[in-house]
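Re: export button greyed out
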Amino acid sequence: MSVAPVLDIRGLSVSLPVGGDRSFAVEDVSLDVSPGEIVCVVGESGSGKSVTAHTIMGLLPRRQLAPVVGEILLNGENLLDATPERLRDLRGVGMAMIFQEPMTALNPVFPVGRQITEMLTTHTQLSGGECRRRVLALMASVQLPEPERLYRAYPHQLSGGQRQRVMIAMALALKPPLLIADEPTTALDVTTQAQILKLIRELQSRQDTGVLFITHDFGVVADIADRVVVMQHGRVVETGSTREVLSAPRHDYTRMLVSAVPSLAPRHRQPDRQAPIVLSTQELHKTYGQAGWLRRGRVVHAARDVNLEVRRGQTLGIVGESGSGKSTVARCIVRLIDPSQGKVFLGDDEIGNLPATLLRHHRKRIQIVFQDPYRSLNPRQTVGNAISEGPMNFGLSRKAAWDRAQELLRIVGLDANAVDRFPSQFSGGQRQRICIARALAMEPEVLIADEAVSALDVSVQAQVLALLDEVREHFHLAMLFITHDLRVAAQVCDHVAVMYRGEVVEYGAVREIFGAPRHDYTRTLFEAAPGRHWEFGRFDTAVN
Amino acid sequence: MSAVAGFPGRAGPALGGLLRRHPTTLLGASLLLAMVLLAVFAPWLGTGDPVMMNPINRLKTPSVEFWFGTDMYGRDVYSRVAYGARISLTVGISAAVLSISLGLLIGVMAGYFRLADAILMRVMDGLMAIPGILIAIAMVSLAGASLLTVVVAITIPEIPRVVRLVRAVVLAVREEPYVEAAIAAGTRLPKILIRHVLPNTIPPLIVQATYVCASAMITEAILSFLGAGTPPEIPSWGNMMAEGRTYFQLAPWIILFPGLFLAITVLSVNVLGDGLRDTLDPRIARRLRG
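Workaround output, generated via the alternate export path:
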C-alpha cells in the first residue's frame, strides 16, 4: 500500500451549464487508483461516473462542462493544468480509455490493424516492419483469432467482442500505467462479457496497469473489482474494498443498490399446474431473406420449431443472448411480424395465420411492453391519449377511456393528472410504467415484456419488476417475459425457455433449469453470469 | 435522448424564441412579408396600370414621377414590378403547396407499401433523371403558355425530392416502438399514419417547402426569360427582364429592378428556410446552441 497511486483525484468538481437540474456534474470527488489495482466506479445513470472518466482523459466538451476545482494527478502530474498538446501526448502513453460501444469508437473506413498501428506510429519511432510485428503480437495477446487475417478486417466484419478486443489492444499498445474502462462490456452479450472481463484482468495484472472501471452492474463489480467507489448525484458516497462494500455497505444508497440486485436463486413459488393455458405456440418458425427473383438467397432461421405455453397467472421467461430469436418469437406472437410457419394459439383461437382484418379483434387480448422507454411513447401525444387510444379503437367512449387511463396510472404508481402531460416530462422508469398502463388499458389476457426492464437502472428495475409481478397477480395475466438477464428471469419467471440460434434448447420449470441446467449452452450462460459466486445481501435502508 | 428519427417535439414555442435569437431569420421573414404585402396591395401603393403603354414616356429614367423609370413602351416599371410580385409569389407558393401535397401522398404510399415503393420510386428516379427546365419547356410548348402550365411544369420536377424525404421519414418512424404499440392496440392504418407517422414529416416538409418556393420563383423567371413561361402580356419579373434585355445598355433599370426584387425575394425565402431548419431539427439546434 506504500506504492504511489498512478491516478489520484482530489476534490474534483465539474460544473454543469446554467439551467441544469444541479449545478455540478461531479462535486468534490476524490479517488485514487494504485498500479495493478482495479477500482470500480458504480452508480446509476446521472451519477457522474462517466463525466469523471472523461474529465481524466480531457475529453469533455469544455464549453459546457468545465472542471472548476480540484486536481487530477496522473503519476503526480496535474492533468487539469496540462496543455492540450501535453494531454495528447499522454493519451495512449500515460493513460488510455476503452468505451462502451466499440463499433462507434473504431473508425469504420480503416482496417483495424491500421488503427492499432496508428497508436504506435503516433507515439513511437518504430519502423514499419517492427510496428506490424508489434501489432500482430498485440492482437494475439488480446486473443483475437488469426491476427494476420483480422489485421486487414474492417470493424463491421468483426463481432462485438472482437471489436472490444481491438479497442483493448489499442488502449494497451503502449503499456499505459492507467486504463479507463467506461462500461466496456455493457453492450456485449453475457458470455462475451465474461471473456472480456477475464482478458482485462489478465492483461492488467501482467502489465501492472491501474484500471478505473466504470459500471452500473454489481455482478461485474463482484467479479473484477479490488476496490469500489459508489457515486450518487455527482458525489462519492462510499469507498472501500469490494468485500466491505458488497457485504457490509454503510451508506443507505449503497445498501439500496446492493439490495436491488436480483438474486440468481429462483424465487420460491409453486405455479398452479391446473391453470388454463392462455397462450401457446406450435412449431413456430420464422425465416428471413427468402431467395427470390433477382436476389441472392441467404436464408436466416430467426426462430425454429418453437413450442411454448403460458398458463393464466404465470410467467414464462425466454432467455438468450442477442440474435437468439427471443424477440422474433415475441413479435410473431403479437403479430408485429408474420410467422413463416407454425401456429399461435390464444386460448382456443389460432391467430398466427389470421389475415389482418380478422386479427384485429384479437389484438387487444395480447399486449406488449418494449425495451426502450424513450421510443415507446409518441412524443407528440399526451399520456392520456396514448393510454386511451387502444380502448377507443374498440369502441370505448372517450370519457370512459380517460377514466380508465387515470385509474391505471394510479395502479402503476403514477399521479392521475399525468394524463395531461407529455412523455418528455417523465423519467425512463416512469415512462415504462406508462407503457404498462397503456398495455393494461386493453384488458389483455397476455402481457409480453420484451426486455422491458433492461434499459433501466437497477433500483428502478426492481420497482418495475415488482409492478409487473403485481399486475400479473391482480389481473391474472399470462406473462411472456423476454430477457437476457438471468437474475431478472430467476425472480419473475415460473418457467423458462432458453433460446440459442433460433431454437429452444432447454425448457422447463425455473427451479429445475436454474438448479440443474442440462444443455451445454445453458451451462455456459450460467457460468458467464457476472457475480455468480456472490450472493448479494438484502439490507434495510432508510431510502424507500 | 428524444432525438428519434425525424424531428420530434412541437415547434410552437421554439419559433418565437428563434425569431428573437436569430436576427437574420427575422430579417428574411420581414422582407418576405414586405413582398407579400406589395403583391397583395399592389393597386393601392401608388401604382398605375402595369400594362398601359404610353409612347410619350418611353425609356424615362427613374424620377419622382416614375420611381423605377419606364420601359421601351412607356410602361411604369414600378407598377410592373409590384404586379410582377403577384406572379412570382403565386408561382412560388402554389408550386410549394402542390409539390408538398403530392409528394407527401406518394411518399407515404412508397414508405408504407412495399409493392408501391418499388414502382413509385422507379418512376421518381426516372423523373429526376430529366432536367426540370426541359420538362417545363416541353410542357409549355405542348399545353401552351399560361400561369397554370408554368406552375404544373415547375411542380413536377420538385415532387421526387419531396417523395424521397417523406419516404425516408416514414421508413424510420414505422419501426418506432410507439408505432408498433399502436398496431398492437388495434389502431387502423389511416389513423396510425395521421396520428403517429405524418406529424414527424411536417417540420422537414416546412423547410423543404421554402426551398421549393424559392427555386420555383427562379425557374419561373428563367422560363419567362426564355419565352417559355408566362404569356408575354403578363407583367412577370422574368418577362420584364426578357423584354428589357435589348435595352440593357440604354435603360438598365428595366432589368435592374425586377432582378433586384427577384433576388431579394428568393434570398428572404432561403434565409427563412435555413432558420426554420436550424430550429426544427433538434440535432442542428443543439449544435448551434453549444
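Chain A touches chain B at residues 61, 63-64, 334, 336, 360, 363-364, 366-368, 370-372, 374-381, 386, 389-390, 393-394, 424, 435, 438, 442 (CB under 8 Å). The button fix ships in the next patch.
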